[in-house]
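Structure in, sequence out. Go:
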């Protein structure tokens, strides 16, 4: 008896091969023989060891799909992820300087500025240190720095931060 012709539901997701007195199933890629040996069931590649993906694996009927967390990019092999350099690919929102780190990036500001999220905010040295220019000077904040102006009859010393 050719079981493959008599029982058409045999070896679903595979090929039924008639043998003398019996049959056997040859399963499609991504499927494995069930315990009864009569049908092919989905193979969960994501639960195998070693895992087919180096980060996120999602099983599907007869296959699987790999994906990467934020800050990483899927390679051409469709299985491995590598760090995405947001700085060199201009995928950042830093106002001044971008520094790549594994899985993300950090923003940096020049001296005289403070980092606030992706923006650089000027430090007001005059407000922070009211006596910065001494008792005979007046402090003027500038982007990233400050200048001292002296009262009439006084001049800045060599350091540029005190009136004499």
């Amino acid at each position: 008896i050719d079981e493959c012709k008599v029982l058409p539901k045999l070896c679903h997701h595979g090929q039924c091969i008639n043998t003398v007195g019996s049959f056997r199933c040859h399963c499609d890629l991504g499927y494995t023989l069930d315990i009864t040996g009569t049908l092919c069931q989905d193979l969960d590649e994501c639960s195998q060891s070693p895992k087919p993906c180096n980060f996120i694996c999602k099983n599907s009927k007869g296959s699987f799909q790999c994906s990467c967390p934020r800050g990483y990019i899927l390679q051409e092999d469709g299985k491995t992820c590598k760090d995405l350099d947001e700085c060199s690919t201009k995928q950042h929102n830093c106002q001044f300087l971008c520094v790549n780190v594994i899985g993300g990036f950090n923003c940096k500001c020049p001296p005289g500025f403070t980092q606030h999220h992706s923006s650089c905010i000027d430090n007001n040295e005059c407000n922070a240190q009211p006596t910065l220019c001494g008792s005979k000077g007046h402090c003027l904040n500038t982007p990233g720095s400050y200048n001292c102006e002296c009262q009439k009859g006084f001049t800045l010393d060599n350091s540029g931060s005190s009136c004499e």
